[in-house]
Write a structure and sequence with these properties.
membrane; mainly alpha; transmembrane; transmembrane helix; globular; about 240 residues
């Protein structure tokens, strides 16, 4: 416990990694999920360098900031998608399975709450609207908020990455939920990129390949993950008790 208090990265691992003891864990799928995330970052970096999205330090900082914002937006979209997909899954389950899944959902919901709470530290430390409160608590209070904000930075940034890789630890509810949620998320983000005209400075063909590459790749990986889970006797009909 004390290690989590001292190390925000260790705390993020405890909060955002699936931990259900009887969960079926396929190490090959886990490695591919990690490499999928790293490959997406590498492709984004290649795209920004190749097509001159940034040419100096200030542009690079802006691009990195945009990428961080995009990761946070992905987490927000996932938070909004979570109750829809999980709710439909739980509602479709029968009998005791429904109650069991609802109990298991507490940990993923706790991960979402922890991420939102960590992000709330930033306005507490910097928002001009509560400057009077910071003046009221004095220097010791400001130091405590500053330390808490620094801790929250590491926790939130690492937590966002883990949340996207492990899909808010929804494997704790059922192994089929991470591929279902991941597929839904990437198609939502692709649609969002099209609507907001993201990467408008990139040539149309490269932009189309980049935007559509993620959902097509993740969909294929999710399908393959579901096929591998069948080897362990895990299928949708059995998961829903039908």
């Amino acid at each position: 416990m004390w290690r989590c208090v001292r190390n925000p990265l260790h705390a993020a691992q405890r909060v955002f990694r699936p931990a259900r003891p009887d969960r079926v864990e396929d190490r090959t799928v886990g490695r591919l999920q990690l490499w999928r995330t790293l490959l997406g970052l590498a492709v984004w970096l290649w795209l920004t360098v190749t097509y001159g999205v940034f040419s100096d330090v200030s542009d690079a900082e802006a691009a990195i900031s945009d990428r961080t914002d995009q990761s946070w937006n992905s987490a927000l979209v996932l938070i909004c998608t979570f109750p829809v997909v999980v709710g439909a899954f739980v509602a479709a389950a029968r009998g005791d399975l429904r109650r069991q899944y609802l109990r298991r959902a507490l940990r993923p919901l706790g991960a979402i709450a922890a991420l939102i709470a960590s992000m709330a530290m930033f306005p507490l430390a910097m928002a001009p609207e509560i400057e009077g409160f910071r003046d009221w608590i004095g220097l010791p209070g400001k130091i405590a908020i500053g330390v808490g904000c620094l801790w929250a930075v590491g926790f939130a940034l690492y937590g966002i990455g883990l949340s996207l890789v492990h899909v808010f630890r929804t494997a704790d509810i059922h192994e089929l939920l991470p591929p279902a949620l991941a597929t839904t998320l990437v198609w939502e983000m692709a649609l969002l990129d099209v609507v907001t005209d993201a990467y408008s400075q990139v040539p149309p063909l490269a932009r189309a390949v980049f935007i559509m590459g993620a959902p097509l790749t993740v969909t294929a990986l999710s399908y393959w993950e579901v096929r591998r889970l069948r080897r362990h006797g895990i299928g949708l009909r059995r998961a829903l008790g039908r």
